[in-house]
Write a structure and sequence with these properties.
The complex is a heterodimer of chains A (120) and B (224). Chain A is of the alpha+beta class and 120 residues long. Chain A contains 3 helices and 6 strands. In chain A, 28% of the residues lie in helices and 32% in strands. Chain A has a 3-stranded mixed beta sheet. A 3-stranded antiparallel beta sheet of chain A has the order 4-3-5, with no helix packed on it. Chain B has a single domain, classed as Rossmann fold, CATH 3.40.50. A 7-stranded parallel beta sheet of chain B has the order 4-3-5-2-6-7-8, sandwiched between helices. The chains are: A alpha+beta (120), B alpha/beta (224).
């Protein structure tokens, strides 16, 4: 969808937290993305390589933890996972459901390096 | 050097959401009820806004923020011609409005004179759904010629709606469109969603929408 804006948001959030932790380098970015969030991993990585240049995030590895979609049937209360949108409840066939998992969209953690002197 | 994991656990779009909260605060301070209008290109967003102004101009002063991807003022010009203040925001090629862009627009409107603010988002059924702007309600203008399968193909935008407009109902006899199939899809994604079928060309059905909006504004003022 709008991967450039999203990637910029990830970079800003990572830099902000890296500075707070007095990092000298960021080596990893751990993202949690639900199945129903329409984001293309490759596209984020592509933009990341460009916009993180000349920041302490340059070269950081992006990891995507994809969370499968889980719905709960509102009629029989069964929780079930789906391969595609608008899948009926496998138990009772109802389409009335609420999303339990699959809309996650957050930065879970960053991997950083600190100056050894500063740690002491 | 030693690698350390620093927990963050923050929404990727949290900076946008914070800005959206500021927008909402500013609107509430001025008692302005606000609507984010989304739709695909050509569904009739601007016509719908013009019909809304026509029906409610005696009751409300309505300010409009027009979001467009290209540097044009076609839509804002139409609103100003209809006698209401309008601001054009150009996203510079971006596919959606973000809270920060809206913040710039809001500051150019005479908020203390307004009752209602309408935001016309960029024509697109995917991206606008992901960016919270701080408005009070999300509205989608769907239109009959787009086809009856759109809820099935663009589920995310339907999930986040507070009200749905089905425009161009006057074209129903001329196109393949199964209203029941369309509304079944909507019901699956957003059970009980309030829906107004209407035609901006003939004006049919606009009254019911205008009455509903009047009630919403009243409830908004009472709830404060």
């Amino acid at each position: 969808m709008h991967e450039l804006s999203v990637t910029e948001s990830i970079l800003n959030l990572a830099l902000e937290n890296a500075n707070k932790a007095q990092a000298v380098k960021v080596t990893g970015i751990n993202l949690v993305i639900g199945q129903l969030s329409s984001i293309v991993d490759d596209s984020i990585q592509f933009y990341w390589d460009t916009i993180s240049e000349d920041t302490i995030c340059q070269g950081a590895k992006l990891s995507f933890n994809r969370i499968p979609a889980v719905l709960q049937c509102q009629d029989c209360k069964k929780e079930y996972s789906i391969a595609q949108e608008l899948t009926p409840c496998p138990v009772c066939g109802s389409y009335r459901s609420v999303i339990i998992h699959g809309e996650e969209f957050y930065l879970d953690s960053i991997e950083i390096e600190k100056d050894q002197e500063m740690i002491k | 050097m030693s690698a350390i994991r620093v927990p963050v656990v923050e929404k990727i779009l949290s900076a946008n959401d914070r800005m959206a909260d500021e927008n909402r605060f500013l609107l509430d301070q001025n008692n302005v009820f606000s609507i984010n209008i989304m739709a695909s290109p050509g569904a009739g967003k601007t016509s719908f806004i013009l019909q809304t102004i026509k029906h409610l101009s005696n009751e409300f002063k309505i300010g409009v923020i027009e979001g467009d991807t290209a540097p044009v003022t076609i839509d804002a010009d139409k609103i100003i011609k209809a006698g209401m203040p309008a601001v054009q925001i150009n996203t510079g090629g971006d596919c959606h409005l973000e809270a920060a862009m809206l913040s710039d627009g809001i500051k150019q409107l005479p908020l203390n004179e307004l009752d209602v603010m309408i935001v016309e988002n960029v024509g697109n059924l995917i991206c606008p759904a992901a960016w919270y702007l701080g408005t009070h309600i999300n509205l989608l203008v769907a239109s009959v010629p787009e086809g009856d399968d759109k809820p099935y193909k663009y589920p995310n935008i339907y999930r986040g709606l507070n009200v749905l407009i089905i425009n161009k109902t006057d074209l129903t006899p001329y196109v393949e469109y199964n209203m029941d199939y369309f509304r079944k899809g909507v019901e699956l994604l957003n059970p009980g969603l309030i829906t107004f079928p209407l035609s901006c060309r003939t004006g049919d059905g606009v009254d019911a929408w205008a009455e509903w909006l009047k009630t919403q504004v009243k409830q908004y003022r009472q709830g404060k």
